[in-house]
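Table 4 source record.
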Amino acid sequence: MLRLGITGGIGSGKTTVCKIFETLDIPIYYADDRAKWLMVKSPSLQTGIIQLFGDKAYAADGSLNRAHIGGIAFKDPAKLQKLNALVHPAVFVDGENWQQEQLALGVPYTLKEAALIYETGSYKMLDKVIVVTAPEEIRIQRVMKRDKLTAEEVKERIARQMPESEKVEKADYVIQNDGQHSLIKQVLQIHQAILELKA
């Protein structure tokens, strides 16, 4: 079973591309979603997050106060680094457990969807990486609409990520999500190429 990663900058459309792979019965591990789930469900992670961000890190109902954490973490690189140092190892273990479950199902390959595949070094554990790319202006518009942020706030977040050009350079496969190229066609071509690798 091959392990693939799928990544791209904020607003590039990774999730949309993943949904197409799902229609081909490819299992997908959504690392960022699992991270959010673990931050609420793992007692040791919760303790570490409260130590970093204070009691306001969690709402009264136990849910994660993402606005509070994000507001601090995106302005303080040291805090963001410490948060990542807490969350990434937990997600890694969770992801490995998930991979073992997929092995039993006999699928040709799995996809790990994560924003920081290169930054965290997790690409070293993957056979191939797909990078989803989109023009910055489109990405800014998408994130403003999705996360109710200003253009400046989105640009700040983009600036904290590895430049998209660098990700594209490192990629094994690139998907253009610019509204000009068919996403379905690109996904099918990559799917076919991966099945041929397995053959």
